[in-house]
Amino acid sequence: MPLRIEPCSPVLVKDPPYGPQWVHEIKWDGYRVHVHAENGHVRILTKGGHDWVKRFPSIADAVKLLGRRSMVIDGEAVVLDSQGRSDFGLLQQALGGKGGTRNAGAAQLVAFDLLYLDGHDLRRLPLSERRPLLETLVNDRSGAILISEWLGVDGAALYAAACQHGLEGIVSKRLSAPYRADKSRDWVKVKCVKRANFLIVGFERSTALPSHVSRLILAARRGGQLVYVGSVGTGWTDKESFALRELLELIATTTSRKGMVSVEPRFIARVEFRAWTEDAKLRHPSFKGIAAVEDEPDVYEIPDTRARTTKP
């Protein structure tokens, strides 16, 4: 039985593939894990190779209910919200936040592949043969293990529905493909990306490159007030970072003890992001450009139920 298997990582593409040789699943928003079980001993390995079995006790207990069999299951550790959607923010809260040490008792395993079973390495088999073995093994024996459903052959329709319901995106897999470690075009993903304009209300100077910015502080509008929505620190080149610093220094107002420089809200940042967190902050934002407010007055307006008003 292999001690560790490098996960197959889907390649990001613009559009889902089409044809009967592909199957499509929802893209789950959690921690990718490989669950190893042998003689009643369970390991839950993260992509970095760390054993998080103590942090996911509900998953470990559910795997033990499958019997004293040797297996390696590929899947995603998730926490579901009240609508049955995986929520990375809830998972992080359950684990104690970034760098936390708590265990996520509410976590479930969404299983989508079976790589090893009772002395047999299954990675050379096509997905179309591995999948029935996974379904037979799990067989709805525990609520802490779910199987990621195959949702038809129309990837474009599924992708549209996923985005409409606020999901992260979809993953498409080639039925005839064996399991290949690392990046493989046998698995592709399409993300539901959002884009909006937010006011730049501050920035932090880079400590590594003093003439650059490390992140922009962003706000949206709610009525006549500004609402802090987080910050963005990726998406620009070194040249753009230098230009941002020069521009924003000209409209700087105050500097806090933590080094954040407040600026007059005269510019907007075009930002791509994946979703909103529970506390109304941007998730995975990426900078896509800057414009003067008079040239781009369409600033994101937050509904009253979305966030509380805070001082940026």
Short characterization:
With 312 residues, the protein is an alpha+beta fold.
Fold and architecture overview:
- The chain has helices at residues 57-64, 88-95, 127-138, 155-164, 238-249, and strands at residues 8-12, 22-26, 31-38, 41-46, 71-78, 108-117, 120-121, 145-147, 169-174, 182-191, 194-205, 213-222, 225-232, 252-255, 260-263, 267-273, 275-276, 282-283, 286-292.
- Helices cover 16% and strands 38% of the residues.
- The protein has 5 helices and 19 strands.
- It has 312 residues and is an alpha+beta fold.
- Strands 11, 12, 13, 14, 15, 16 and 19 form a 7-stranded antiparallel beta sheet that branches. Strands 3, 4, 5, 6, 7 and 8 form a 6-stranded mixed beta sheet that branches.
- The termini are far apart.
Provide key terms for this protein.
312 residues; disordered C terminus; seven-stranded antiparallel sheet; alpha+beta; single chain
What best-fitting shape do the alpha-carbon axes yield? elongated
- Rg from Cα: 22 Å
Number of helices: 5
Structural class, judged by helices and strands?
A: alpha+beta
**In total, how many beta strands?**
19
- Share of residues in strands: 35-45%
Q: How would a crystallographer describe the biggest sheet?
A: 7 strands, antiparallel
Average pLDDT metric: 88
Classify the helix fraction into a percent range. Answer: 10-25%
Pattern of helices and strands: EEEEHEHEEHEHEEEEEHEEEEEE
